[in-house]
Each structure stands twice: as C-alpha cells, then as structure tokens.
Amino acid sequence: MLELINDPFYELIGKYDRCIIDYCLIEDHTPHQGYRSHKDAVLFAMLKVIERYIDTQLESEVRYGRKIQDEPYPWNLDIAKAKAHQIDAETLLHVPVILRTDRIGHRFYDCSLPDPLNGEQIPYWYAFWETPHTSGYGPDEFRRVNSVLFPKGTDELEVYEWTTDWSNYFEAGREWWGTACWSVYDQRMNRYIVIMAETTD
C-alpha cells in the first residue's frame, strides 16, 4: 500500500485548519478483497497517522529547542480487535438539515445528535463540523471537501464503519465528544480512503 500524498485533496483539506479529522488516501496494487482489504487499509492509515503525530512532535521540539515530553507517547493498537459493518455511501455522506441556529451559534437539526457516552459512534458530518471548539464549518464546506475526496462521484463506493476500541488514538474522544472510523473503497478510482476522528474538550 502507498499513501497518495500528492493527491489534490491533501492541499484542499490543509486549508481547513480547524478540521480535526485524519484522512488517508491509499493506493493498493493487490486485488481488492472486500473486508480484508478494508482492514489492511485501516491499519495502514493508522500507522501513517501515528507517523504524522510523531513528525509534528519532533518538528515542534526542534523549532522550540526543548523536549515536549521525556518519553514518546505510548501509541498502541490491536487491529485484530477492530470490527466493522458495511454501510451505504448515502449514510456516510448524509447532510442533515439545520432547522435553526440560536443566538450563541448552537445548531438544531432535523435529526437527533449522537450519544457517544452510550456507545454511539458520531456521524461523518458531525465529526467534520460539530467539533468541541466550533470549527465554523457547515454543509457547504462538507460538500466541497467530499466533492474533491470523491471526484468521480459516490455511486460506486464500498464503505465500512469500524469500531474504535482497538487503538489509544481514539482514547481522548471516548471521554466525551466521540470517535469515528470509516474505510471507503472507491471502485472507480481503485483507491481507499480512511477517515478517522477523535477529540475532546
């Protein structure tokens, strides 16, 4: 597997500096094998995301001339624990209707909000724009990002929604705001997209 680091999507998402989602676009030259290929892509993406975090920490230490911590963060993962079920692309990319926004900016939707403390996984739209520290993003930005992420349309996407109990990457999100992990195989482009999110207040 190979990360498609020169894909135009990365340039676009870099402009959304308040987005807390980790995306990984992946090319794989081996034949697609359904669930197994998705799981391989999720593992590959997690390792890439951890690598990014380590690189960012090291760059900060060099820039400021001091160690952020004496020991590296104790990343762990157990991909054998990761389980998934297939969902349709419409479910992943659903955009709720904002019924109204109150004077402090709180939005009210035509659907109920997820309850992560009771084990509910957050939806993709929620991960994109309903962050603990208001992102300022909404449906228009969400659609724009996804139009670049899936440039040949969404009719031939194979999507799996994954549990998030298999890595401490998701640990902070489980405390309150929530966690999410999806893998998408874009059959038209023969590539995988892994979308992961977690954060806390």
What is the strand and helix layout of this fold?
Blueprint: E1 2-3, H1 8-14, E2 22-27, H2 35-64, E3 84-87, H3 89-92, E4 98-101, E5 107-109, H4 124-129, H5 139-149, E6 157-162, H6 171-174, E7 178-186, E8 191-199
Antiparallel strand pairs: 1-2, 2-8, 3-6, 4-5, 6-7, 7-8
Describe what you observe in this structure.
The structure is a single chain. The protein is of the alpha+beta class and 201 residues long. It is built from 6 helices and 8 strands. It has helices spanning 8-14, 35-64, 89-92, 124-129, 139-149, 171-174, and strands spanning 2-3, 22-27, 84-87, 98-101, 107-109, 157-162, 178-186, 191-199. A 6-stranded antiparallel sheet has the order 1-2-8-7-6-3. The chain has a two-stranded antiparallel sheet with strand order 4-5. The radius of gyration is 17 Å and the shape is globular. The chain starts with a strand and ends with a strand. The mean pLDDT is 91.
Which terms would index this structure?
globular, 8 strands, single chain, alpha+beta, 201 residues
Task: Describe the structure concisely.
This protein is an alpha+beta fold.
N to C succession of SSEs: EHEHEHEEHHEHEE
Average predicted confidence as pLDDT = 91
Rg to the nearest angstrom? 17 Å
Low-confidence stretches: none
Give the termini separation.
Answer: 34 Å
What is the strand tally?
8
Task: Classify the beta-strand content into a percent band.
Answer: 15-25%
Q: For the report, how would you describe the main beta sheet?
A: 6 strands, antiparallel
Biggest sheet strand line-up:
1-2-8-7-6-3
Overall geometry comes to globular
**Percent of residues in helices:** 25-40%
Specify the structural class: alpha+beta
- How many individual helices? 6
